[in-house]
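S2.1 Query sequence (Probable membrane transporter protein)
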Amino acid sequence: MTTEILGPAVLVAVGVAAASGAQVLSGMGFAMLAGPFLVLVLGPTEGVRLTIALGLLLNAVLLAATWSSVRWGDTLRLLVPAALLVAPAAFVTGRMGTAWVTGAAGVAVLAGVALLASGLRAAWVEGPAGPVAAGAASGVLNVLAGTSGPPIALFVAHRSWSPRVSTATMQAYSLPLNVVTLAVIGLPSAGGAPLVGAGVGLVVGGGLAWPFVRRIGPAVVRAMVLALAGVGGLSLLGAAITG
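Output structure tokens follow.
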């Protein structure tokens, strides 16, 4: 019985620690890394809720440290379409079976990984449609898998921003979106060992990464995020297929 309890808690702690460290170092990656682990242990509904709640806490901490570097105009252009699509996306996913939601979450994570890894750029993203499309896709993915980052990361890749500006703007966007999403889908109710593991992982991962913020190159962090997120996405697909 002890192993049955500690196993999921350790899995959650490791996944959340890696995700928290990646978010501190690069400004993104928390949901892509932590989401699959939490969904596997807690199921798609509770896993997404807890992923978003933990991400919100991390957004607040990082935003407090980078507030002066936020691009507020771009933040609002991304946030409005994202927030408007949260409720419709929740309505649709709430009527899908667990296996379908888990599988869709896996596909969403893997698609985001593939797009980020490809370095794909499109001229239309530079225009007015760019932030609208990125925000809309991000809002839907946040409900589906707690993973709002990939479309925003693609949008940021088209901007010549410094790492600090990118990190600050992504937190300013993600924090209110996560608040809206939790208001629609509900707060997490998970307790026990997995919740303790998630809390420990969040603090330990972020704390260990903080001293290295200016020492580890973005290419290394990006490669780590993509690799671990890919493993998580494949795990979700496997869980959906096997039931």
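Residues 40 and 236 are 7 Å apart (CA to CA). The radius of gyration is 17 Å.
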